[in-house]
Amino acid sequence: MTESPHSGLLGSAPTRRTLLKAGLVGGAGVAAGPTLWTRAARSAAPAAGVHLSYGADPTSGMNVSWSTAGSVQAPRLDLGLTPDYGLRLDADSVSSLRVDSVYHHVDLSDLRPGTRYYYRLSHDGGSSTRGSFTTAPEAGESFRFAAFGDMGVADDAARNVNLIRQQRAEFAFVVGDIAYADEGGMGTSRESQQHFGVWDEFLTQIQSSAAAIPWMTTVGNHEMENGNGELGYNGYRARFRHPGNGAAGGQETYSFVRGNVAFIALDGNDATYEYKRNAGYLGAAGDAWLEMQLAIFRSRSDIDFILVGFHQCAYCTNVAHASDGGVRDRWEPLFDRYQVDVVINGHNHCYERTHLMRAGKPVREAPRGSTVDTNDGTIYITAGGGGASAYPDVLPKMSYYTNAQGLKIPELTDYRAVGDATHSVAFFDAHPRDAQGRATLDLEVVASDGSKVDTLTIGRTR
Ligand SMILES: [Fe+2]
Ligand SMILES: [Fe+2]
C-alpha cells in the first residue's frame, strides 16, 4: 500500500473552523487564514464531488466540501447573499490513501437562519463551480428529510439521488455503507478488495443533490478501510465533515437539532457483535455521551421527536444480517428509558419496519398506513435500500440475532410490521405541535421507481 504523494503535506492539516460574520456578507471581501496548499496547480478542472453537511447548529452552520483531480493552488470558496458573493474563504485541504484527488473543506458558522446563500468554488488556474444552499429556519416550521443507508454506486442508487431531489428533502440522513470503498466490509480487506477510487464516483453521483442540501452521514462496516488509520476511517474522514460535537475518541458520532426533531448519529461498528474490528473503541464513554444527549433532548420543551441513526440493525428479520445483539445490549435500554421515537438502521439491503417496541417486545401494532403514538414505544426502521444490490425479502417465522459470541440465535419475527425488498428511500415530514399539543412525523417510504412502500403517521403528545 502506498500513500498519496500529497499526504505528507496535507494529511494532518487540522480542521479550521472559519468564523463567518453573517452581517458582513455582501460587504467588503474578507480572506481568512493562510493558504494551505501552495504547490503549483496541476489541474485546471473545476471542483467535483461537491457536498454539504450541517454544522452543530443547522440554523447557522454549514460545511462545504469538494474535490479536485489533483493538487491545486489556493482552493477557496466565495460566499454571499447574492451571486455577487463578497466573502472569500480559504479551504482546508486533505489527501487520502491511493487516490490523486485532494479534498477541500470550508466550515461556515454564524450564518443567518432560513437564508439562501450562494457559493462559488475555485482555485488558481481552474474554472469555478457555483451552487447555493439554504440554512435551517428557526423552529416552528414543517420540514421534510430523507433517511437511508447502503447506497453505493449503481443505477438504482442514482435513481434514489433523483428521488431525493424530486421529493424536495431538505437534508439526507445516511446510515452507513456509503460508497463501498472497502468491499470486504469486515475491516480486514486485502488491497485487492479495496477500491478507494469509488469514493469519487460516489461523490459525483450524489452531487446533484448534495451540493444543494446537507448529507449527514454515519459510518457502516464498509467504511472500515483496512490500513487506512487505526479505525480505518481516514478515507471517510478525508471526504466528509460533521458537526464535531460527538463522543470523545472519534468524529463519527454527533447530534443536531432541526426544528422539533433531535438527531443523534452513532457508530454501529462500536457496538456490533457481527464484524468486531472496531467494537468497543468508544465503549462506556460513548454510551455516557449518548445518554447525556438523550437526557438533554428529552427534557427540552422545544423538542418532540428523537431520531437515532446508525448502521447495524437492532431489529430486522432479513436473514442476510438479521439483528445485532450488540446494538441491542448497548443501546436499547437507553432508547427505552428516554423514549426514542425512531431508530434508523441499514446494513440489510431492504426496507423493514417494526411495530412499537419496548424492552425487546412489540407492545403496540403499527401496520402500514396506521397512526401511532411513540409515547408508547420505539419504531425501528431498516432503510437499507439506498441502491446497493438488494437482498431478497423472505419473511420467515423465525429469524435470528447475533450474540456476543458471534452465534446466530433464532428468535420469532413478531416485531416486524412491514417489509419490502425494492430499493427505496424513507422520507419524513416533521410538523410542529398542533393546538392539542400533538406533534407529528409522517413517514413515507418511496421506491426508486416512485411507488409507495410504506406510510405511517407517528405522533407524540407532551
Ligand atoms: Fe451494505
Ligand atoms: Fe453493512
UniProtKB/TrEMBL annotation:
Q: Which GO terms describe its molecular function?
A: acid phosphatase activity; metal ion binding
By its UniProt entry, which PROSITE patterns does this protein fall under?
Answer: TAT
Q: Which domain of life is it from?
A: Bacteria
Instruction: Quote the InterPro entries the UniProt record gives.
Output: Calcineurin-like_PHP, Metallo-depent_PP-like, PAPs-like, PAPs_N, Purple_acid_Pase-like_N, TAT_signal
Q: Which UniProt keywords apply?
A: Signal
Q: Domain Purple acid phosphatase N-terminal: where?
A: 49-135
Q: Where is the Calcineurin-like phosphoesterase domain?
A: 143-351
Tell me which Pfam families the record gives.
Metallophos, Pur_ac_phosph_N
Q: What is this protein called?
A: Purple acid phosphatase-like protein
Q: Which organism is it from?
A: Nocardioides albertanoniae
Instruction: Identify the taxonomic lineage of the organism of origin.
Output: Bacteria, Bacillati, Actinomycetota, Actinomycetes, Propionibacteriales
